[in-house]
Amino acid sequence: MDENKVIICRCEDVTLKEIRNAIREGFTTVEEIKRVTRSGMGPCQGKTCGLLIAKEISQMTGKPMEEIELQNIRPPYGGITFEEVTKGTITENDK
Amino acid sequence: MSKIENLELLVVGGGPAGLSAALAAANYGIKVSLAEEREFLGGQLIKQTHRFFGSEKEYAGTRGIDILRKLIDEVNKNKNIEVLLSSRVLGIYEDNVVTILNDHKMKKYYPQSIIFATGASEKFLAFENNDLPGIFGAGAVQTLMNVYGVMPATNVLMIGSGNIGLIVSYQLLQAGVKVAAIVEAAPKIGGYSVHASKLRRLGVPILTSHTIKKAIGKEKVEGAVICELDNDWNEVKDTEQLIKCDAICLSVGLTPLVDLLKQRKVKTTYVSELGGYVPLRDENMETSIKNLFVAGDVSGIEEATAAMIEGQIAGLSVAKRIGKNNKKEIEKRIEEGKNELELLRSGPVGKKIRKGLSKLGLNHGKNYNENFSEEALDISHLMKTGVPSEENLKNKLPSEEKVFDKGPIAISECFQRFPCDPCVKSCPFNAISENGNINNIPYVDFEKCTGCGICVSKCPGLAMFVVHKNFSETTSVVIMPYEFLPRPHKGEIVKVFDREGKYLCDGKVIRILDGKFQDKTAAVSIEIPKRYYLQARNFKVEE
Ligand code: SF4
Ligand code: SF4
């Protein structure tokens, strides 16, 4: 299998090769791999790649899946404009 | 100062679980706000044009889209439910404040309780060139076809033989798209056998113990290389083959969508049997955080029927917790829901779910009736190929040939134990029985059966046929279910096929029942040469 041609994170175009290299370098949590490769930082926020990366870590490190956590998820969930934020938080009285 | 609106119950997600949860709570006086990300309600139900299995109480035999219509109707009529459409939940914070993007404004809410019914997302598969245009998730294909009326491709290779893979393959055929093959890595078919048999009759190969190695194509998918797998899931040498197709559809499972739960730091754990990372929860669907509930696929991947019941249990649990009246009655209804779930999960196909739930510490002490947890027949050949064995068929045929002399009789080609009973419920002569348990295999009482053909249209698995062996000296008639367009007309000559989709003979259409009662599953009587009465199980209308 040509690892360069297998895409794990579709949003950020991260290949299996890059993920495996990161694990070999010692990044063995989904969160760390997200930070070093950008996998899971795109619009889907890791819905596609998160599980695949967790499985890859499990396979390469021998750690059972039960001991591997998914990446952290922080608000906001999905893109939002500053205008949308301010419109909702400022009430009539503030103006 | 910014404004925070107080809510009694916030339900996140307007699919089958969320709708059921909202209704269950609202019916006991709870004020519910139902937030749905899209501009319409329904979740995955909006694409389900097939009839559902399960028990009659949860709408078995009814098409997913029709179940949805009923639920939406009830929700819209209910004065206690406020529906927020195009409303994406953006965040949930430690103090349970929730932000929702609605009407291009980020609004803040403070709900007393929350039910997360956020559903699932599709799993992705790692293989070479897996980002070529033309590689779809099964959900996307279903959305394109059934919601927007767009044909995704002309010749599709389906990866995965779970119920979604099988159902979407069938729907592709209905839309006039060719399905090159269904590839399944496991040694047996993942979905219900009746769905698989339907596809085999239509000539679609199902390749178990096979996997995709790579997609082929320059600008877009032009084919795929697949290979065989041995018992240890390793590639068998020299088994590579190229399959031509213009799209590859991935249906390799769903995984719970727990992102929002993780924001709130709900405890989750990996349970492969439930599809991935799932929230820890109790039997009333409450998570590790008080007043925060889950329902449906987000709590573990299961069928829509289970999602609706879980929704009811979650909604009722909230009503019991924060409502004022009817506590006893609510408790009774929660108990009923739990019993129904137990029944749904008690057969062999529920084994995986039961195992997953026990990992969450959930079905300890529960006495599943072990009589129903194993298959009654040896269906290994059927589950490998989608075609029943001679043994299986013999088991469902009359024990004596002379029974066929009495006239038309129903033959049930349903051999797997799974929770389904529309055949039993639809027969006006009580001629079909599952021996008191919905997980049992249906048997026809040939004495009672009049050959009316009602069950042919009502079975969601298209597994009921009526056979009139001695229609004339030289011919038999088989009534077959038919869900394709164009419909045949009376007197038309059609091509008749066997259970593997092999051409048998020409047949003559002598009657078509295709009214409101049949609800788009026509029952078509085909006259064929007598020697084929036990083989003829499908036909095609030449366009
Ligand atoms: S053909 Fe009619 S009588 Fe016979 S089993 Fe079916 S519904 Fe009942
Ligand atoms: S024969 Fe009965 S149990 Fe089997 S799929 Fe049809 S309705 Fe369901």
UniProtKB/TrEMBL annotation, chain A:
Keywords from the UniProt entry: Oxidoreductase
One Pfam family hit: SO_alpha_A3
Residue ranges occupied by any SoxA A3 domain in the UniProt entry: 7-84
GO molecular function: oxidoreductase activity
Keyword Lipid metabolism: no
InterPro entries membership: BFD-like_2Fe2S-bd_dom_sf, Metab_Enz_Cyan_OpOx_G3PDH, SoxA_A3
PANTHER family membership: ANAEROBIC GLYCEROL-3-PHOSPHATE DEHYDROGENASE SUBUNIT B
Protein name: D-nopaline dehydrogenase
Organism field: Petrotoga olearia DSM 13574
Automatic annotation (TrEMBL), chain B:
Domain 4Fe-4S ferredoxin-type residue range list: 440-469
Keywords, alphabetical: Coiled coil, Iron, Iron-sulfur, Metal-binding, Oxidoreductase
Classification via InterPro entries: 4Fe4S_Fe-S-bd (IPR017896), 4Fe4S_Fe_S_CS (IPR017900), FAD/NAD-bd_sf (IPR036188), FAD/NAD-binding_dom (IPR023753), Metab_Enz_Cyan_OpOx_G3PDH (IPR051691)
The UniProt record lists the keyword Transferase: no
Coiled coil: 320-347
UniProt-listed PANTHER family: ANAEROBIC GLYCEROL-3-PHOSPHATE DEHYDROGENASE SUBUNIT B
Protein name, entry field: Thioredoxin reductase
Lineage of origin: Bacteria, Thermotogati, Thermotogota, Thermotogae, Petrotogales
